[in-house]
């Protein structure tokens, strides 16, 4: 109800404000339009002007007056009086408008204070609907701000119009033509029309705001109705819950009584069971004592049985040990027999190896002798080769242009057989007497040409080459043998003999190595047999020592390693 009353008061206040504003604006515009032509028409009748203004309204009256007057200029003293009257009129009008604005502001303040009081009362009375009231307050504040804004805009417009009028009056003093004043009046009319349009827009906005507020109020009322329905439903639910809680409490009380009764019965049964348990514990203690006595007797019997079993197991172990000892004695006797047989076999092998060693030593001695002989022959042959090379060099100085054809053939064959050896090529250069250009072409130019020692071609000694140099000279007949054989064939025979002797030496070395390896194997087998005899017959360890000493003495007398080294040194 209070909200409805407040809304009605707000509507009445808005209507009064709108009517007052409309009257003020309309009066201002009518006064300006009615008095300005009356001042300019002092010579005409005032009754005609008033009738014309009443008949034609704002714009028609002004246009008819201007048409009747025409473009005739006014006198100067009339101009001054008209300006003074216009200033006085505008000042009075401005004062009246300011008073009206102040009154409206006071009324607005009073109404705002009243609205604040009513809102406070509503807040105190409707604590449950605070959220809705806050929205209403915000809407009211917006409404007041819009109203104040519209009033301020109207004031600004009025002030602007007054300023324009003042400016126009000041300009009239300066200008002498009335046409300019008419133009200014037309502009003022246009400004007034714009203000009217703005006022209409403000009124439309106010109507929209009113409708919006009404819609909001309807929505708030609907929400309040819905909230009241929800509250009633919640109250019904709460009552149902309370009834259910009462039923549950009753059921709880019944269950509590049942639990107390069950506790009593359980306590009675517990006391009975405790008595029974005490009786059983007493009986159990007696049984345990009887069991302990019987356990003691059983332990005594078990100890006696353990002693009996231990004695019987000791007897069985001794019998097993005797049987094992007998079997070990039989095995040891058999192993002794096998060891004696192995010793005899090793003695025989040792004798054979000693015989072979003696033969190998003899072969080595023969090989050494043959090696010494061969070394002597080699030294002699080298000496002869050096002498023959000196003779060849001497002969080559005498006979530079004559060389035997067979020597050239031999040199070429050996050169290609030895894969283009540099030594054969050097010998060919020396013997055939190549020039420096030929040497450079062949690529065999050397720094030291005057060396004396030159190796033989295919093992051919130097003296044969010296004998062959000079073609069919007398030296060839002197050195040739009587059995019509060439020196090359003799030298090949000598080389074959030397290779046979080397093969024999190698065979003797292989035999010496074999004998040395056999001696090592026999010594290892003997040591293994001795170890087996020691293991098999620990009590008979003195006999193997007797057999071992002569063997070791014999093997110590044989110089195995030094002989092998001595064989290798002369061969090298």
TrEMBL record:
BP GO annotations: endoplasmic reticulum to Golgi vesicle-mediated transport; Golgi organization
Locations listed in the record: Golgi apparatus
GO molecular function, a single term: small GTPase binding
Primary residence: Golgi
GO CC annotation, single: Golgi apparatus
UniProt keyword Coiled coil, yes or no: yes
Keywords: Coiled coil, Golgi apparatus
Coiled coil among keywords: yes
Annotated region (Disordered), positions in chain: 1-71, 502-572
Protein name: GRIP domain-containing protein
């Amino acid at each position: 109800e209070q909200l409805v009353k407040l809304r009605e008061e707000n509507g009445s206040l808005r209507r009064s404000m709108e009517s007052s504003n409309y009257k003020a604006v309309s009066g201002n515009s009518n006064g300006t339009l009615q008095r300005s032509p009356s001042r300019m028409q002092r010579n005409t009748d005032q009754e005609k002007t008033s009738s014309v203004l009443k008949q034609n309204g704002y714009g028609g009256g002004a246009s008819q007056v201007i048409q009747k007057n025409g473009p005739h200029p006014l006198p100067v003293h009339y101009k001054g009086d008209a300006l003074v009257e216009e200033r006085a009129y505008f000042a009075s009008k401005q004062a009246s408008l300011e008073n009206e604005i102040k009154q409206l502001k006071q009324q607005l303040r009073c109404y705002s204070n009243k609205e604040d009081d009513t809102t406070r009362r509503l807040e105190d009375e409707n604590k449950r609907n605070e959220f809705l009231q806050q929205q209403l307050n915000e809407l009211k504040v917006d409404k007041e701000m819009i109203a104040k804004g519209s009033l301020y805009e109207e004031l600004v417009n009025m002030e602007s119009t007054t300023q324009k009028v003042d400016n126009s009056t000041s300009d009239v003093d300066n200008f002498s033509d009335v046409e300019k004043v008419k133009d200014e009046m037309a502009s003022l009319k246009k400004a007034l029309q714009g203000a009217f349009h703005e006022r209409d827009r403000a009124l439309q906005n106010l109507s929209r705001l009113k409708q919006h507020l009404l819609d909001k109020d309807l929505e708030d009322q609907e929400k309040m109705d819905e909230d009241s329905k929800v509250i009633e439903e919640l109250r019904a639910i709460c009552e149902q819950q309370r009834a259910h809680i009462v039923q549950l409490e009753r059921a709880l009380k019944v269950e509590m009584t049942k639990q107390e009764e069950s506790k009593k019965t359980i306590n009675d049964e517990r006391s009975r069971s405790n008595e029974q348990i005490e009786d059983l514990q007493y009986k159990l203690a007696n049984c345990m004592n009887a069991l302990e006595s019987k356990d003691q007797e059983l332990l005594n019997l078990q100890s006696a049985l353990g002693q009996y079993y231990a004695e019987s197991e000791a007897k069985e172990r001794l019998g097993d040990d005797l049987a094992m000892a007998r079997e070990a004695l039989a095995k040891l006797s058999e192993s002794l027999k096998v060891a004696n047989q192995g010793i005899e076999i090793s003695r025989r092998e040792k004798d054979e190896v000693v015989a072979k060693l003696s033969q190998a030593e003899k072969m080595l001695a023969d090989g050494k002798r043959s090696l010494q002989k061969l070394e002597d022959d080699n030294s002699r042959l080298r000496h002869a080769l050096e002498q023959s090379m000196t003779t060849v060099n001497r002969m080559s100085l005498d006979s530079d242009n004559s060389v035997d054809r067979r020597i050239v053939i031999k040199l070429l064959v050996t050169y290609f057989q030895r894969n283009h050896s540099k030594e054969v090529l050097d010998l060919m250069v020396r013997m055939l007497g190549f020039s420096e250009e030929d040497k450079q072409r062949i690529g065999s130019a050397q720094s030291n040409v005057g060396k004396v020692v030159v190796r033989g071609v295919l093992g051919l000694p130097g003296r044969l080459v010296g004998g062959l140099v000079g073609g069919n000279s007398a030296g060839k007949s002197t050195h040739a043998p009587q059995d019509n054989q060439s020196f090359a064939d003799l030298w090949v025979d000598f080389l074959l003999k030397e290779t046979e002797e080397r093969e024999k030496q190698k065979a003797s070395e292989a035999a010496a190595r074999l004998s040395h390896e056999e001696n090592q194997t026999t010594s290892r087998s003997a040591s293994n047999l001795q170890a087996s005899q020691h293991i098999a017959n620990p009590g008979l360890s003195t006999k193997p020592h007797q057999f071992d000493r002569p063997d070791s003495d014999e093997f110590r007398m044989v110089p195995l390693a030094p002989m092998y080294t001595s064989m290798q040194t002369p061969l090298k």
